[in-house]
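dumping this here before i forget
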Amino acid sequence: MPLALLALAIGAFGIGTTEFVIMGLLPEVAADYGVTIPTAGFLVTGYALGVVLGAPLMTVLGTRVPRKRMLMLLMGLFIAGNVLSALAPAFGVMLAGRVVASLAHGAFFGIGSVVAAGLVAPEKKAGAIAMMFTGLTVANVVGVPLGTLVGQTAGWRLTFLIVAALGVLGLLGIAKLVPELPRPEGVRIRHELAAFRNVQVLLAMAMTVLGFGGVFAAITYITPMMTNVAGFADTSVTWLLVLFGLGMVAGNLIGGRFADRALMPMLYVSLGSLAVVLAVFTLTAHTKAGAAVTVVLIGALGFATVPPLQKRVLDQAAGAPTLASAVNIGAFNLGNALAAWLGGLVIAAGLGWTAPNWVGAALAASALVLAVLSGALERRTAGTHPGEVGGRGGSGGNGGSPAVAVPAAGAVPAHH
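structure:
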């Protein structure tokens, strides 16, 4: 794997840290600004919505900019947002800083996925994407717990200054290690938008919303579930989240490895297993050992879907993948927001702290249904138009056989 992927992973580490660390620092931020914790929660919601809106916006604005330069500009925006958050004199200013930082999120991962895939041979593309996303998963194991600890002991503002410093490191790494890539030739906004007329692209994005949403239906409410049902102390939740993060790292790497060999079978297995594990979590949440093991499995199975889903979008939108790739990153965050809302509804309805697990299982099962439908449509298209299938989604139908996957993936670097 090229060293340039390390620079992308460092940027992803900083972005992952700033996205999730705020959840552990809400009480400190709320106390500092004299607002309620639910009000401080807008710092989470605002960031998620900023990702959803910023992904297509920043990608469209960067259509005419060379991809390396655009990645550097996005890291600059990320640094500015975190510095503004750290120095914000009022809550509204900090919220603005969070939104500024979030605008870089979707486009960085979207453009970064295209760049990462273009740095390696066609049969290694999902692995390269997974390598970049490793920075995001490691952030949940290292960055978030350490950032929370720093924020609770030395002040939350220092945490955001450190995150900004990580952004500087990522910016320098991209400048030094990522090769100069020419501006995509002949790509216009209408070409990028045309990808959304492909039903397979839309199905992949819907799988992203539902599948990853299943994970966050449970994880959003992990603290009350583990303290009120499993009997963990409040201080143990941090270590449960570390276990979740370790599962994410493992699942991301496994998903990248097997997506290059058998993409759609990988999705069938991971989504089906995720639905089962989330349903079982309703039972295992009542014991400490069972809950801990299940949390690891949820992280692993949830993130095992990320590289194949991202590669699926890249393959199906091969002629103009950048916008579709970035919008799919927004789809992950849309899934998070949708799942958190649905999980809150069932708790408010008095169905208990474990009820969000059933919501998550239903979402993951729905994603599996869409995956099966997508595979069936692809096989049907292959039988009807054998001459047209090679460049439109070979990675999905037979799981990355070189005879099919190479033309699909090969279209990506042609626009670098």
